[in-house]
Amino acid sequence: MAASACPGSAAIPEAVRAKFVENGQGHVFEFVDKGLVPAGVPSVEAFVEQLSALADDLPRINKLFASTMAAAAATVDRSSSELTPVDESDVLSAASASAAERDSWRARGLAAIAAGQVAVVVLAGGQGTRLGSSLPKAAYDAGLPSGKVLIRLQAERIQRLRTLAAAVAGADPSSVHLPWYVMTSPQTHEATVACFAEHGNFGLPEEDVTLFQQGQLPSFTPEGKIMLESATSLALGPDGNGGIYRALHVNGCVADMETRGVKIVHAYAVDNLVSKVADPVFMGLCLERGVDVGNKVVPKSSPDEKVGMLCRKGGRFSVVEYSDMPAALKQERVGEGEAAPLRFRAGNICVHAYDIEFLRGPAHPDRLSEVFHVARKKIPCADPATGLTMSKAAIETENAVKLEGFIFDVFEEAERTVLLEVDRSDEFSPVKNAPAKGLSDSPDTARQMASDEARRWLEAAGATVEGEGLVELSPLVSYGGEGLEALAGATVSAPCCICLQAELEGLPSSLAMPSAPSSVTLPSGREAVCAEGCSRPVDASLGISGNALSFSVLAL
Question: What are the boundaries of the region Disordered (predicted)?
């Protein structure tokens, strides 16, 4: 222990103190060394835990700050002259591919899933604060009739894929393993773990579900000094979604994938309500092409849509974040008038695929870029006089430099890449903005998109959908419009939720059914169960009339 008359100072292990001092960050002890540990701040013991977790990583962190700031000053990788749009020949369109091509990709993807060669990683570190929720985004209820939260919908898509893959392989679904790696953040980890525990991993095998945390980085002063949030806490935050690669390695996920025989890994963001988890068409395409990295893209809806853009930088595929894209390039069009397509129009939707060898090679922590992205922000910090935390409101100017890695930073290292353009109405309905405010990319727009998709699938199967309101189709019934033959000739009245009979017991306990469900025989001859006049309360923040949803349930 460090020798000192101050109890707080004495609690700092000498080895930990030495590492911070050696790396020019000894100022973090200024309050505890003075005995200035006011009431209301974390304990010195908690501070020691925080310091110890960071101590061995200080050389890398200091180097990362120096190289990132040097690159930012030199405007490295920000020159618009290096950026060119992707060629039409670079992009495959799911819509224009022949039915035979799509069927071939899908069959190959399902075969790979059945063989245990596909793994899934979901970025689930975000909080629901902007949505008016205190829960992780993963546990957010976007207002579908069933009340299923985002992560449950995705788990059920994995379940359905296991069934589809087993059918192709002539196997039992329980023999199909589609491992799911859920990346949380320190802010969401405990709540996400609790959510999975409460729901029994949503029916997935325990050995196929891994929850792990992304890393953290400190905020810095412009001079490179680690900032304190209070006398006894560092100002830490997630290292950006680009932290996925380091986190996958240090938590043993890549090693686990290799042991399982995984060949391709699908990564996506948890806040996409209609995300096609481990899409067999996309997996099959990437396997057929033998690519290092695959990306799904959608045409940008407007020059100012806040999505990154797939382009070429110095001749190599890259993604440029919307905030880094020069304003003039965002506006460029191919032709005259507002109807002309944007020149840079391949929008990134955070749906990626990786060959396992790419994760082992260019995406290994030892080979990752030492240049991150700089964000200058106002953050709460320690009052130099008291050691208490100063709020953002008390801070007049941007006081912090935050370093963030982006998931696509490593794409320039890929030798073989494929871009698949998909229809956003089928695959991209992000839940990012607050509900009931008329904003895009909100729960309102997302659930309407999911409902519209369900209507299209039902009508394509020969059903008639009558009435207004939401139509929800459980992922356990259909992953992508398949398996709906039993509803041919049936009339479905909206609003409604179509699910499996086995799901009825798992619907929200708040769901009110005015009477016991009744048995019905569908025109196809399939026996089903129907319950009319169901309702459930919803959070007031969703802005739904009466803070309740009314609908019918049809269980197959």
Answer: 431-451
What's the distance, CA 473 to chain centroid?
Answer: 22
Per-residue pLDDT band for 515 (boundaries 50, 70, 90) equals: confident
Pairing of strands 496-499, 548-555: parallel
Instruction: Tell me the three state secondary structure of residue 335.
Output: coil
Question: Helix 189-198 to helix 150-169 angle, to the nearest 10 degrees?
Answer: 60
Burial call 208-242: b when 16+ CB within 10 Å, e when fewer: bbbbbbbbbbbbbeeeebbbbbbbbbbbbbbbbbb
**Average predicted confidence (pLDDT) for the chain:** 93
Q: Are 329 and 321 in contact (CB under 8 A)?
A: no
Domain endpoint, select from 427, 449, 473: 427
**Which residue, chain included where needed, has tokens 């895009």?**
440
The pLDDT of residue 79 is above 70: no
Q: What is the 3-state secondary structure (H, E, C) of 358-399?
A: HHHCCCCHHHCCCCCEEEEECCCEECCCCCCEECHHHCCCCC
Residue 469 CB-density burial (10 A; 0-12 exposed, 13-18 middle, 19+ buried): middle
Radius of gyration of the chain (CA): 25
Same structural domain, 152 and 229? yes
Q: How many domains does the chain have?
A: 3
Which amino acid, residue 90?
D
Using the structure block, give the residue that is written with the tokens 């997996």. Answer: 283
Q: Tens digits of per-residue pLDDT, 290-309? A: 999 999 999 998 998 889 99
Instruction: Tell me the per-residue pLDDT of 9-59, one tens digit each, with 9 for 90 and over.
Output: 668 999 999 999 999 999 999 999 999 999 889 999 999 999 999 999 999
Q: Return d(Cα 453, Cα 471) in angstroms, integer.
A: 9
Q: What are residue 2's phi and psi, to 5 degrees? A: -70, 135
Q: How far is CA 155 from the centre of its chain?
A: 14
**One domain for residues 417 and 466:** no
Range of the domain at 209: 73-77+86-427
Asked if residues 246 and 127 have their Cβ atoms less than 8 Å apart, the reply is no
Distance CA 15, CA 345 (A): 52
Closest to 421 measured CA to CA, from 27, 93, 58, 187: 93
